[in-house]
Amino acid sequence: MSTTPRRNFLKKAGLAALGTSHVLAEPTRKKELFVHHVFFYLKDPNSAQDEAKLLQGLEKLAKIPAVKLSHIGRPARTSGDAIKKDYSVSWLCFFKNLIEEEIYQTDPVHLAFLDECGPLLEKMVVYDALGQKG
To answer: Coiled coil where (predicted)?
Structure first.
């Protein structure tokens, strides 16, 4: 009885196992994630018209293709010394990476938002963070 077919099988199985272990041993690459969080302070925080215009502008921004996820918010009714509630509206959005965020910054919809809503604002505070998602 010949052992050659068995040896060939074992040899091929061993090579296949080595190839698989290399793939399994390779570290999982995490994807880059860019977070853009803006806090808007209206010049007239009591103006429902100004707030509505700002909210409409943010809803348009959410439709820019580079924006992967967004959230429009107002100060929550929470308490604590570290919690800031002096802003009018917040805009939180996520991008696949820094390049996508840069595309967003130059998008005509974003530029129009700055022209239309900028005059309504006393100031805006921007927090950008670059990290990883699992």
So the answer is: none
For 42: left if phi > 0, alpha if psi spans -120 to 50, otherwise beta; the answer is: beta
43 within some domain:
yes
Q: How many domains does the chain have?
A: 1
What is the reported pTM? 0.75
pLDDT digits (tens, 9 = 90+) for 78-123: 999 999 999 999 999 999 999 999 999 999 999 999 999 999 999 9
